[in-house]
Structures are given as C-alpha cells and as structure tokens.
C-alpha cells in the first residue's frame, strides 16, 4: 500500500496559505510522525488526505486511486480504506464503547441497518477482538462519557481498525493525555502498523515521542516540508529548519542528535516536554 501526495496546497478564503506544495509518500508498515510548530499545516495536511478539508490544488493517491479526483459517492467509499483517529476522539458520548466502535462499519451496512445500529455477527465478533487488542476487552458496555481520556483514544483506535483500513491517519493523539498514557497510545499505534502491515501517519506535537516511536520523521514549517529523515537524523540543523525556519548549511548534520542538543528553543511550541536524555 502506498500513499502519494504531490504538490498539495491549501489556501483559505482569508488568503492564508496553510500548505505550499507539499509532496510526501508513505508505504509499507512505516510509522511516520509529522512535527512542526503550531500553524505549520500539520492538521490541514492530514485532513486534506481524506478531504475532510478540501485541498486547493495537488493530488492525493491511495493504492492507485486518486482521492482528489473522486466525486462524493466514490469518495465516501474510498474513505473506508482510511482510518482516521481524532485529537478530540469524536465519540458519541451517550453510546457504549461497542456501539462507538461499530460506527466504523456504518458505511458497510444498509441505511436501515445503520439507523437501527444492526450489524452482522461477523462485525460484532471483530469488534470484540479489536477491543481485546486495544486493552478494552471488558469495557464494551460502558458509555463513552464514563471513560478516561486514554480509554477514549483507544476506542477511537478500535473504531478506525474495524474499518480494515489501508492506512491510519492520526491527528495529535496524545495532546490531552498524561505521559504514561501517551507512551501506551504511541506504542499501540506502532504495533498495529507492524501487525496489520499498514502505514501510520501521525501529526504530533511531542517531539520526544516522535523520536522514540516513529520510523520516520517529517517536519513542516509555514506550510512547507523542510525535513524528512529518520529520528537519528533529526539534529540541531533539522530542529532549526522545522521550528525556526532557519537553514544552517554549514552545520554538521551527523554530529548531534536531539539527545545531544543543548538548545531547547525548538520545543517552545510544546512547553513542558523534554528530549530524551535531557532533565
């Protein structure tokens, strides 16, 4: 499975340019973390892939299907291949955990079945299996509004997985979670990528989590792709490009890693976080 994004731009009616010709490909079972300061265009990029936000120009192709060329009906069907995990969870508070998970199958049942929330036995069995996998096997009957933040996020992951997607798009999954739960969620996402052999693209503010869990890091600054490499390649020069928009062509990009950096300035966009190795 390959996602190809080519020359993606997004200009809002206000004239603000959120994306400026971003091109990116992800494939296999790679976990890719997208980092950058607030307003860099990370969430816009994620949402443009499945056209929750309509791009101004450029193409998005998933497994040979150009999503940006699809009409409404075809796009609705294609979205079944794209699992989306939201920062704010997007759960129906009054529904149970099981009912929320099964909403991931709504596009696969008739309108009458969807209205009655009547799902085939195969979908229900799969939902139980997935809830076990995300650590919620004994909570299927709890209402969503009774759950902690970490539990809600795992319901969101389970809802995306029951779609049997070809890719997972994840928008700031740890922004409202405590450090221990954040690590649990990131580990779960990377394990799922390997187990299901699908790529995971994560928009994330916590750079230390990106460095620890991602196979690849891409950085946006002011709507442009300014870094693409492995976690070990994210050195001081990379941080300057991503968080300051500063190019340092004379820097030795192999000499330091985030753990060696003495400058915490790039992390000003996410106060309270430190890099691995820092106090």
Automatic annotation (TrEMBL):
GO molecular function: ABC-type phosphonate transporter activity; ATP binding; ATP hydrolysis activity
Keywords in alphabetical order: ATP-binding, Cell membrane, Membrane, Nucleotide-binding, Translocase, Transport
Ranges for domain ABC transporter: 3-247
Pfam family, one: ABC_tran
SUPFAM superfamilies named in the record: P-loop containing nucleoside triphosphate hydrolases
Region annotation Disordered: where it falls in the sequence: 243-279
GO CC term, one of those recorded: membrane
Record-linked InterPro entries: AAA+_ATPase, ABC_transporter-like_ATP-bd, ABC_transporter-like_CS, ABC_transpr_PhnC, MetN_ABC_transporter-like, P-loop_NTPase
Listed PANTHER family: AMINO ACID IMPORT ATP-BINDING PROTEIN, PHOSPHONATES IMPORT ATP-BINDING PROTEIN PHNC
Alphabetical list of NCBIfam families matching this protein: ABC_phnC (TIGR02315)
UniProt protein name: Phosphonate transport system ATP-binding protein
Organism of derivation: Halobacterium jilantaiense
């Amino acid at each position: 499975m390959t996602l190809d994004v080519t020359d993606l731009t997004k200009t809002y009616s206000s004239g603000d340019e959120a994306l400026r010709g971003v091109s990116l490909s992800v494939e296999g079972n790679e976990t890719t973390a997208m980092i950058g300061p607030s307003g860099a265009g990370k969430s816009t990029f994620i949402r443009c892939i499945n056209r929750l936000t309509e791009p101004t120009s450029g193409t998005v192709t998933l497994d040979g299907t150009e999503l940006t060329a699809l009409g409404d009906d075809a796009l609705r069907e294609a979205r079944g291949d794209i699992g989306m995990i939201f920062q704010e969870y997007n759960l129906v508070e009054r529904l149970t955990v099981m009912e929320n998970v099964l909403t991931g199958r709504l596009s696969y049942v008739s309108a009458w079945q969807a209205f009655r929330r009547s799902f085939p036995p195969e979908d229900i069995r799969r939902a139980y299996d997935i809830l076990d996998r995300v650590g919620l096997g004994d909570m299927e009957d709890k209402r969503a509004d009774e759950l902690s933040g970490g539990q809600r996020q795992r319901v969101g992951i389970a809802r995306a997985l029951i779609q049997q997607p070809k890719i997972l798009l994840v928008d700031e999954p740890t922004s409202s979670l405590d450090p221990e739960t954040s690590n649990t969620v990131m580990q779960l996402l990377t394990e799922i990528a390997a187990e299901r052999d699908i790529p995971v693209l994560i928009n994330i503010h916590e750079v230390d989590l990106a460095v620890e869990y991602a196979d690849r890091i891409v950085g946006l600054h002011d709507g442009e792709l300014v870094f693409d490499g492995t976690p070990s390649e994210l050195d001081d020069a990379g941080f300057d490009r991503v968080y300051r928009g500063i190019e340092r062509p004379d820097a030795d990009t192999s000499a330091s890693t985030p753990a060696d950096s003495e400058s915490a300035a790039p992390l000003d966009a996410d106060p309270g976080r430190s890099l691995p190795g820092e106090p």
